[in-house]
């Protein structure tokens, strides 16, 4: 059928909030995603019905160099305050470029964008390493969101470098008190609220009734986040990222955050695929790849249609 004039492009470069450059990705059945060149930051992922699946704070003013509060911040080359750089490193505070000449990297997605971040002379003062960080954001034909990061050490001085990494994903949930996370039970975790002490998770699914800030170690490839009220399960698949960080600021901390509404903690949960505990070391010429794949599947517990264990075990 000849394309109708109103057909929207699968990939569109346009101006977002405050005139910041952003790329809109559109799937064949109505799904979409948006990524700002500022921060290489995904700020929207909508399903085929146009429902927004990621959380971005209503207090966010999109004013560089502050990082955008919500979506999927890229934490690189540092996670948290473990190091001498600013919290979570600098990748989320930098302007990325569209990679106009990407190395071959096959994909089945018809809607994707390749971004690249390389250090400026000034950046080298802060983190004295030369690297190429390629980020591909892709919308699967079924509406899945796929992020692939490739970091290559391009040091000419023969020096290796070490970095930590996280896709700091803010999931939109209807009510945090009705959310469960499956796949992290029985794991060890470092509790950022208890001086990063190591504990073992008891019980089965994670539920939430207070501030949580935990780095789960050696987390499985698949993690399920169940939103009971919405009858929706987010399935997070990760590769190259051994840890999973779970964070919700809850009420007290929310009130101290100027870019976060006092009651917004009820409608978000961060589950972050990360390499946090054991940073990654690359020799010159070596490249690391870290993948995140997000899907949202209907889950209706009452009819027992979706057993999270089945989701976690399915291919
Ligand atoms: O406010 P930021 O820098 O985006 O960090 C938010 C949170 O990010 C989480 O990943 C950390 O574990 C928390 O300790 C931190 O508070």
Automatic annotation (TrEMBL):
Highest rank taxon of the organism: Eukaryota
Keyword Nuclease: no
Family designation: Belongs to the glucose-6-phosphate 1-epimerase family.
E.C. designation(s): 5.1.3.15
Record-given protein name: glucose-6-phosphate 1-epimerase
Organism, as annotated: Salix suchowensis
Keywords noted in UniProt: Isomerase
One Pfam family from the record: Aldose_epim
Top EC class for this record: isomerase
Xref: InterPro entries: Aldose_1/G6P_1-epimerase, G6P_1-epimerase, Gal_mutarotase_sf_dom, GH-type_carb-bd
Catalytic activities: alpha-D-glucose 6-phosphate = beta-D-glucose 6-phosphate
């Amino acid at each position: 059928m000849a394309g109708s004039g109103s057909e929207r492009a699968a990939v569109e470069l346009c101006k977002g909030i405050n005139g910041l450059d952003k790329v809109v990705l559109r799937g064949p059945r109505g799904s979409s995603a948006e990524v700002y060149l500022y921060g290489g930051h995904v700020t929207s992922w909508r399903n085929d019905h146009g429902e927004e699946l990621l959380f971005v704070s209503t207090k966010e003013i999109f004013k560089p160099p502050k990082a955008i509060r919500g979506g999927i911040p890229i934490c690189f080359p540092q996670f948290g305050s473990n190091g001498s750089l600013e919290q979570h490193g600098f990748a989320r505070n930098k302007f990325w470029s569209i990679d106009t000449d990407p190395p071959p990297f096959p994909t089945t997605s018809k809607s994707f964008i390749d971004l690249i971040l390389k250090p400026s002379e000034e950046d080298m003062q802060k983190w004295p390493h030369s690297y190429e960080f390629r980020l591909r954001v892709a919308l699967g034909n079924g509406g899945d969101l796929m992020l692939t990061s490739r970091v290559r050490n391009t040091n000419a001085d023969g020096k290796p470098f070490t970095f930590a990494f996280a896709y700091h994903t803010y999931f939109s949930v209807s009510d945090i008190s009705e959310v469960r996370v499956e796949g992290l039970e029985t794991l060890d975790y470092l509790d950022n609220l208890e001086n990063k002490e190591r504990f073992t998770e008891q019980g089965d699914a994670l539920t939430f009734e207070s501030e949580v800030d935990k780095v789960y170690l050696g987390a499985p490839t698949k993690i399920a986040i169940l939103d009971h009220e919405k009858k929706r399960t987010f399935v997070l698949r990760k590769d190259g990222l051994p840890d999973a960080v779970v964070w919700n600021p809850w009420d007290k901390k929310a009130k101290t955050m100027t870019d976060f509404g006092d009651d917004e903690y009820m409608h978000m949960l961060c589950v972050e695929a990360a390499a946090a505990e054991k940073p990654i070391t690359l020799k010159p010429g070596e490249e690391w790849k870290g993948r995140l794949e997000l899907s949202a599947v209907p889950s209706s517990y009452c009819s027992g249609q979706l057993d999270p264990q089945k989701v976690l075990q399915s291919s």
